[in-house]
Amino acid sequence: MNRPPRITEKPCKTALSKSGLSYDYTVNPYTGCLHGCVYCYANFMRRFSGHLNDPWGSFVDVKTNLLDVLAKELPRRSGGSVWLSSVCDPYQQVETKYKLTRGAIELISKYPKFTISILTKNALVLRDLDLLIEMRDRVDVGFTITTFSDQAQKLFEPHASTIEDRIDAVGKLGEAGLDTWVFIAPMLPYVTEIGLEDGLKRLADVGVKKLMTDRYNARGLVIAQTLAAYRSWDSNCDSEAIRQLLWKGREYYQLLDRRISRLWAELVPTGTYERDLDWYFTKKRKPWKINRSHFANSHLSC
């Protein structure tokens, strides 16, 4: 029997952190994430938060004083883009009670020098539509979708909002005049391909214009969790072939990227498509030569 998640209230020292990615700052109201996505790169946070022996998805530390700290930091910092969030989902289940993400948006909205970019897998973001509309010129909202298969979604990201709810939410945000986008990430071999064309059409039908993709961020423990989900999804899958693709599948990911790019251009001729595949050319791993038999259930024939 699964134990209920452990929710712990803890104070934080900083709220507005410098980001090493494409944003100036990031705000993470929580440590940990109850969505429990098996592939999540933020799993490494267990080492730095006293949760090394806790499975990812089984705990959340709530930064109870985050809004007080943020209120002091905002006037002292130079302006820039703020990402909600980099190592947790800002709209995971505990946000319903604590409302730290909503409070952070309210505080940041008072300073025109800041913009906000939200990335989530949870339709709870619709709760804050009133705030987002007020600052629509300085905010964008993205939804992560890894697969359009309901069955696979329940295995790989068991406690995130359903795919239907995410697509519905991104459509409602767009109707409200907000800048929206969808992040197909991480692209998982074969799993991301399920219902891909129909899924992208559903995004186009609700008005999505911007699509982004990224490949799987391979890490030791996360690989093991991901492979376990693959075996639950298909007990006959070739685990070793999947492992090799996750670690070194340059050719596979380039083919998948090419297919998504082509489909999106056909469905949304005025849309945009961005990818993050540059690391293929800088990683030291030797690319794995794909055995074409592994494409038996794949649409990647080109």
Provide structural commentary:
With 302 residues, this protein is an alpha/beta fold. The protein has 2 domains: 1-120, no CATH class; 141-289, Alpha-Beta Horseshoe (pyruvate-formate lyase- activating enzyme). Helices cover 33% and strands 18% of the residues. The chain has helices at 66-73, 95-98, 100-109, 129-134, 150-156, 163-175, 196-205, 220-233, 239-248, 250-267, and strands at 6-10, 17-18, 25-26, 30-31, 59-63, 80-84, 114-120, 139-144, 179-187, 210-215, 272-276. The protein has an 8-stranded mixed beta sheet with strand order 2-3-6-7-8-9-10-11, covered by helices on one side. A hairpin with a 6-residue loop joins strand 2 (17-18) and strand 3. Helix 5 (150-156) packs antiparallel against helix 8, helix 7 packs parallel to helix 10 and helix 8 packs across helix 9 (239-248). The longest helix has 18 residues, at 250-267. The protein starts with 5 loop residues before the first strand and ends in a 26-residue tail after the last strand.
Strand arrangement across the biggest beta sheet:
2-3-6-7-8-9-10-11
Q: How many domains is the backbone divided into?
A: 2
The count of β-strands is: 11
Terminal Cα span: 46 Å
Helical residue percent band: 25-40%
List keywords for this structure.
globular, 3-stranded mixed sheet, 2 domains, 33% helix, 302 residues, alpha/beta, pyruvate-formate lyase- activating enzyme
Write the layout of secondary structure elements.
Elements: E1 6-10, E2 17-18, E3 25-26, E4 30-31, E5 59-63, H1 66-73, E6 80-84, H2 95-98, H3 100-109, E7 114-120, H4 129-134, E8 139-144, H5 150-156, H6 163-175, E9 179-187, H7 196-205, E10 210-215, H8 220-233, H9 239-248, H10 250-267, E11 272-276
Helix pairs in contact: 1-3, 5-8, 7-10, 8-9
